[in-house]
Amino acid sequence: MKFIKNIGFLFVLILTLNSCSKDDDDSVKEGAHSTFVLVHGAWQASFVWDKVKAALESQGNKVIKVELLGHGDDQTPVSEITFDGYVKQVTDVIDGLNTPVVLVGHSLGGAIVTQAATMAPQKIEKLVYVAGFIPQSGSSVFDYSAMDSGTLIPSVLEFSSDGNTVTIADPEVNMRDVFCQYGSDEDIDLLVEKLRPEPVAAAGTPLNYNSDVYGTIANKYYIYTTEDKAISYPFQQQMVNEAHITKTYKIESGHSPFLSNPNELVQLLNQITQQ
Fold first, then answer.
1. Separation of first and last alpha carbons in the chain
2. Are 231 and 107 in contact (CB under 8 A)?
């Protein structure tokens, strides 16, 4: 009888340990999920992240797309749009979350997340640039674009008569040739349909952030787009070296891999979050 009781005790103990082990596994898996905050670039809007958002959410992640003022469906008057306003949109999202975030910025969005990250460094789990600008404090996105000898953007710009906004001339051609040369016809049609003039003042505003704080953000990553005609690959490399970012990846794509290469981009984001 004593032997049987001991066997029974061991059986219950094994079941208990197995149950605890399963719960631990579940918590690890849940803990592995990330909260992404995605920031788009100029002449685009949050819709460009839709494919990436759907894929990341299907894996259990939380994804928040930031719709910059004056982009997409937002009707904020151009006169009220500032670079600091863009940054505040991002920091408001981060401050409203009770968890560190994977902050991702594309193109103009790269400049925005650079300044935003320095305002809440303790909330940044990873800072990721996807063909993003990284202007040093005191320089603007326009300043940096002018430094890029490989960009085609200046050749396709069309300014408004008052000089307050700038758009893309002949968008049916240039949205493919400059911004998304490997995108599908549907991707290009969507970019053209959603195209809105870009406020000049925001992109022309010098960044103003603490460079020392930026340097303390250890988990910085850059995803190069090697066939990019909007921000050339060599200039991307120059900015990365200047920002002392050592963790880099490549996608053989144009400027908008979230449209043309979404699966590859999601795979890289997964690799980054697992580091």
1. 53
2. yes
